[in-house]
Task: structure prediction
Amino acid sequence: MASNGDTVKRRTLSVESTKELNGSECQHEIEDLKQKLKRERERLVVWRRPFTTLNYFIKELIIVANTFLHGLLAYRRLVFVAVLVIIFVLISTKITGPHQLIFSKLYKEGWWCLRWLGLGVLSSVGLGTGLHTFLLYLGPHIAKVTLSAYECGTLNFPEPPYPDEIICPKIAQIGWTPTLWSIMQKVKLEAVMWGAGTAFGELPPYFMAKAARLSGYDSDDEEDLKEFEELQKKSEQNPDSMTFIEKTKLFMERIVKRIGFLGILACASIPNPLFDLAGITCGHFLIPFWTFFGATLLGKAVIKMMIQVLFVIIAFNEVLIEAALDYMSVIPFIGVRLQEPLIQFLRNEKKRLHPEEADAVQNNPSTLSTLFNYLVFFMVGYFLLSIINSMAQSYHKRLNKEKVKAKKKRNTSK
Result:
């Protein structure tokens, strides 16, 4: 009897070990398939597979547009009211009367605010690589206002929205000297709206992580969440092997989780390329929306924005600019070569501020100005390409998700 019992136990153990072995092999097959699909997805970019990438991009765009329209249908009343308001405003703009002055002002300032808000969203929304709109638009704008204040001897050129070119008024304020505070007051609207846009751009990672936590998810569908979980596991199992960037991410995650509002505020108030992790952390741990968004908005639109604006204004102080150009000749090899184009660029920018000289400068742009325009064109183009690549890869992931599910189902049936 004992021998029969031992035989049954051995058979049971053998069956269990076989199941474990088969399960392990199946898991390896699934992981291999996932890695294969991931490598294939990473190669799906415009410069490698242009036709397939564009095809997938268009299909994903149709799916996103369809999802958006279905989302609008869920709020029919709100959409109906919004359409009525738009129609009323459009009709009102066609009717002559004293209200046209108010509408004209609201229209100009509204578009001015929306422009900077949109540029802020583009800077941090995370589509592809993001567009560095502070370096391309807001920073140069603040620098131009700063240089104009010193050159014109006044800040009485038009309030936002500015015309295409800032023009010095004919009458300057005698004895007036620009201050940090006065220039900050001049650019506060643009700066705050841009900062608010960057705060809105941080919402997608928060909502993604929160929805995943509430409804359950496949970690392979959300790569950011998968990276977040792997980082937590690595910190528990093998903390010594973590890189500096990983330790920084983990440190930020702990600050946000333990301190809450003040932790989010601290992370949002400094230039922080890893802030996406704060949004994922807040969503994952179900931190209330207004706690996350309130701290992010205050940090990015007020504190961080004030630091960045101060830096640009100080850096483009006329005295500092001239001193920097003088010392540039000391730099070996390239100093003298860079000095002359920069001096010419600065002279041209000052001439643009005076109506009698603006046309001549417009017809003879400096080399540096032309290079900057090419840089802006290149970066905007690369950003658009990154969106196409990102959406094409998203469709590829959507397309092959069924392959992984079918593989899992076959392995389970075995």
Notes: The chain has a mean pLDDT of 77. The radius of gyration is 29 Å.
